[in-house]
Amino acid sequence: MAQLEAENKQTGKRADFMVWIKIVGLVYLLLLAVGMIGSGFKWATGGQAKELFEFASNPFTALIIGTVCTALIQSSSTVTSIIVGMVAGGLPLATAIPMVMGANIGTTITNTLVSLGHVRDKEEFKRAFSAATIHDFFNLMAVVIFLPLEIATGFLQKVSAWMVSPLSGSDGMSLSSFNFMKAITKPVINSVKGALESLGEPTGGIIMILLGITCIFISITIIGKLLKVAMVGRAKQLLHNAIGKGPISGIFSGTLMTILVQSSSTTTSLAIPLVGSGVFKVREIYPFTLGANIGTCVTALLAATAVSGELADAALQISLVHLVYNVLAVAVIFGIPFLREIPLKGAAYMGDLAARSKLYPLAYIVFVFFVIPLFLILLS
Questions:
Q1: Residue 219 falls within a domain, yes or no?
Q2: Rounded to an integer, what distance in angstroms lies between the CA atom of residue 304 and that of residue 137?
Q3: 21, 44, 97, 240: which one has the fewest Cβ atoms less than 10 Å from its Cβ?
Q4: By residue range, what is the domain housing residue 328?
Q5: Dihedral (C-alpha) 82, 85, 91, 94: value to the nearest 10 degrees?
Q6: How many domains are contained in the chain?
């Protein structure tokens, strides 16, 4: 019996080891994909990326593009990784910053969909829908506060530029000089570009972008599944241990769990059934969902390491914008008592509406994430 247990334990260790080997390989694929998008974007636009995105020069349009794309893809990590690649290919930072803000809004639709699992029980659905929409209200508030500030002052762009500046001095030293990923990604990216060279510009570049986007989808999707197998059991225990022990513990645990599973949607979705079933209150899981916003920034920072060349600093800068924006949003909104209560009150109101009629949640999802954004794009 003891020998059988030892053999099972050894088999389990080998299986865990193989899971992490696969994760490392998929992270490499993610880095390759971001590099391919950057190279393909630069190739397809002939260096005229700014002109290509003139339609999104209105920051509100860029915000909505980020929101709708993330709502459709159901992954802010995927969208922000694509944005990093596009910045590496010449997408202006002023356009990319609102897109990143929009990705924060779009990712919250997953929570709302998860809450629909409680629709049969009126009281459970009320609690679950409130827990889901608190993330929406927080991210909408963050945009209302920080987007006008960014438009007026370029605050986030300046702060992130200051953070990157030590690695891009006038002596010729830059981030690309220290990019340890360049040596293992650049040869593969150049080989892909060489294979598509005969297609010419812009066809070759467009196909390279599509290949990169496909690889990002594949890598992030499979990484998410593998990490769920490896970590979600522990993550659930972490969630039980952290929620209800104070806001700092909740924020830290939400950040850590999201880094572990590489998906803010997974992190926040784990909390929805617990609130729906009455194990926790909306106020208790509130800080936990905010930590998920911070933890999801790791993917974009990782993606930025794949970028080389003159726009490597810009790619790192947009990933830092994502981090600074989310940290400041938590500090300002959650740190100021009257602002902290607004998402809670909005979520409670939406929970009451959901309890009255199931048509309200459906209308909320369709209008907030699709109809209103598309209408504003057409209007602008």
A1: yes
A2: 29
A3: 21
A4: 29-379
A5: 70
A6: 1
